Hints:
Elements: H1 14-34, E1 58-63, E2 67-72, E3 78-79, H2 84-104, H3 132-139, H4 147-162, H5 170-179, H6 181-192, H7 200-211, E4 214-215, H8 217-228, H9 246-256, H10 262-268, E5 273-276, E6 280-285, E7 289-294, H11 305-318, H12 322-328, E8 367-370
Parallel strand pairs: 2-8
Antiparallel strand pairs: 1-2, 1-7, 3-4, 5-6, 6-7
Helix pairs in contact: 2-3, 2-9, 3-6, 3-7, 4-7, 5-7
The protein binds glutamine (GLN).
Amino acid sequence: MRSNERETPQVISVATSTTKFRVLAALNELHLRYRDLREGDVATYIPELAKANPDWFAICVVTADGQIYEIGDADRQFTIQSVSKPFIYGLALEDYGRDTVLSKVGVEPTGDVFNSIIKLDATNRPHNPCVNAGAIATTSLIKGADPTARLNRVLEMFARYFGHRVQVDMSVFMSERTTGHRNRAIAYLMLNFGMIPDNVDQILDLYFQQCSILGNCRDLAVMGATLANNGINPITKERAVQSEYLRDILTVMYTCGMYDFAGQWGYSVGLPAKSGVAGSIVAVVPNQLGIAVYSPPLDARGNSVRGIKVCQDLSQEFGMHMFDAVLTRSQAFARHDQSPTSLHPPISNGSTHQNGHSTAGAVAGADVTRGAH
Length: 373
Ligand code: GLN
């Protein structure tokens, strides 16, 4: 813990610390269960991503009231890749509203791989904002006078979600820019159908830049927790996205976030989520938690193998499936907690979220509970 950085001493009751220990023990156990799993391959089609070590493995959970639990390589940075897509979708919705955005990008799952070239619907829209075609179309909507202004707006948005400044990994950006012929083909196809404007290189640069934003597993869990917390970053208390668009972001994550695994994911995990080819998955338990897993080896669909396993087990063992929650009113981690201290006090809908703990207004001052790995 970084107690020396806290502004106010935190009172931890026996019940609370028992809950914390139980959560951390569960993450520890999951890490042990899957760290020796040798399935999947690190992405190589973006040459810089091929440098990742298949053993890197982190799990992080951040509650909607700002408690952080982490195990493994939670500080290791990676590029967020497609995890950026639903968040950019939120920015486009803020810029243009639902009707305009829906006229450019649909909300139907494709059942195809994420970088499918041929799938445009009957009105020439890409199917959804989570596949590459839809993400490139969404990125083309981001407002700003010039490429720098647009990039800055994107970086500022991710800074609100992360709770600190963000930067683009230039090596990954250049690697993808010089080899991203398939994305270029997708973009030109959409230009041909009049779905994006003709500044194709600028649009693709911004798309490659958003994919090359650096974050770690904790940052991604904080992003998830921000979506869980009505769009307010639970660490900084800053609003990252207008609450009226949260439902849209979470819906496309639920139906399309895991690409052609979305149905099985919904069935076995039952949470809105998004994966990225660097090996991350972020999942959201609405009103309760953000979950992030980082492990570079991917399955054939481009989703992290260990990431899927960890989320399936977490959902199963803690009753996190959204329909479980509806049917049993389970409380995720607090579900089996007999103590009066819930990990998740009710979330207020106001612009500030009150909780019983004192945390400083920055990630560095947050309450971090680390596992032994
Ligand atoms: N930048 C990657 C691409 O466009 C993102 C893909 C992903 O993370 N699934 O191919």
